[in-house]
Please model this.
Amino acid sequence: MKRFLSILLALLMVGTAGCGQDAPQADGESIDLYFLSKSGMKVEAHSYVLETDTLEAQVEEVMAKLSTLPDKLEYQPPLALEFKVNNYQIEDGCVKMDLTADYKNMTATKEILVRAALVRSFTQIKGINFLSLTVEGEPLKDSLGNLVGMMSAGQFIDNAGDTTNIYEKVRLRLYFGNEAGDKLVSTTRTLDYNTIIPMEKLVLEELIKGPDSGMSGAYALINPSTKIVSVSVKDGICYVNLDSTFTTQIYNGTAEVVLYSIVNSLTELSNVKKVQFLIDGVSEITYREKYSFTTIFERNLDLIESK
Model:
């Protein structure tokens, strides 16, 4: 198995270069195929010896291997999860694959890792430089609703060892307070993040950091000493568990604006519809003597300040 580079790089935007037409490997040649780790939090490379020698046969062979569960469940084939492949075709060195709607049920982190495993595997075949995914015929979008487009191996860089940490460039929409602290201000922030971190946690971390330096008209709302105890999503509800520091308000902001800065920011993610708060694991809390945390909060657009 190849030794991997001991670096982590940010996910790069896909280029528009044409697809090459290299001759396929001969049968008996070894390539690396990529699978999800048993924990589902990383991508692993496993050496595989091709048994065919034409481009079409090798794509079919890799497809079958990525769809087959191992005898021992030490890793997860990316095409043996909860979704299925409707069909695929090879066009100008690109594998175009259409998936069932169940593909969208995966968490944002898992979905990115599946993409990474598929792209890295198929582009191991000489003559295949890109992978394109659709879901029930519709172009694939990421967790923020952006079109993914054609993907190349250059988007994913290996780190030392037998696993791959994937970094992806994301554009978050975050809500901070206005100067008076009685309305929300919509902002965007582009950054690279490690996909082993849940997107929901990333949003909370960025809200706690506050607005970017020099951003006019947007003000921090959350006590910067607040710790994220845990964050999880089930059935569209994001459970936000913070430590008690969150209840100590040091910035100018109404209780409503503070809570909905979190709710509105999290519900920008496609997998989050509602939010429930907990303080050190307890929901029987009344925040600032007004809002019960036994309540499940939904998005509130009325609090967003008009430009």
